[in-house]
Design a protein that fits this description.
Helix content: 40-55%
Radius of gyration: 34 Å
Order of helices and strands: HEEEHH
Number of helices: 3
Oligomer: single chain
Number of strands: 3
Shape: elongated
Number of domains: 1
């Protein structure tokens, strides 16, 4: 019984963590479903500083990839850089919290299966023992009595 109590406590703790994460992702703020990063480039001119390794940049860049299909890979509009960076971080945090909720759900399910196992009654207790008669009980109606006599 102590083990069952510990499992219940663990489920309550996991559920509290799950609820805190859910509260966060229910109001995530604006989400930019893309990666924001700073990119350095090489122009290709032989006389430029980038030819010796000192690249141009950093340039704000946005990259979006959904289900293996590249949708966007381009520079970010200069007056939107801070928003793009913030919204991209919001999205990253949102995805991390959603993944954590999934992990918690899996752990809670594992513990529920343990509770089921601990409380499972043995089906053999409810079955006939060897040697006991099986089948239906005879009916006590006149019709069944008449059949037995014939």
């Amino acid at each position: 019984m102590e083990e069952l109590s510990q499992i219940r406590q663990k489920i309550c703790q996991l559920n509290q963590k799950r609820w805190r994460l859910l509260k966060c992702i229910m109001n995530p703020g604006k989400l930019l479903t893309a990666s924001f990063y700073e990119r350095f480039t090489k122009c290709g001119s032989r006389n430029c500083k980038c030819a010796s390794g000192e690249l141009h940049g950093p340039f704000p860049w946005i990259y979006q990839n959904r289900k293996g299909e590249k949708l966007i890979s381009t520079s970010c509009v200069q007056d939107k850089v801070k928003e793009a960076q913030l919204f991209s971080e919001n999205y990253k945090s949102f995805k991390e919290k959603a993944a954590k909720i999934k992990q918690l759900d899996e752990e809670i399910h594992r513990l529920i299966v343990q509770i089921e196992s601990l409380n499972e009654a043995d089906a053999k207790e409810f079955t006939r023992k060897e040697g006991e008669k099986r089948g239906r009980k005879p009916k006590n109606s006149e019709e069944s009595l008449g059949r037995e006599e014939n």
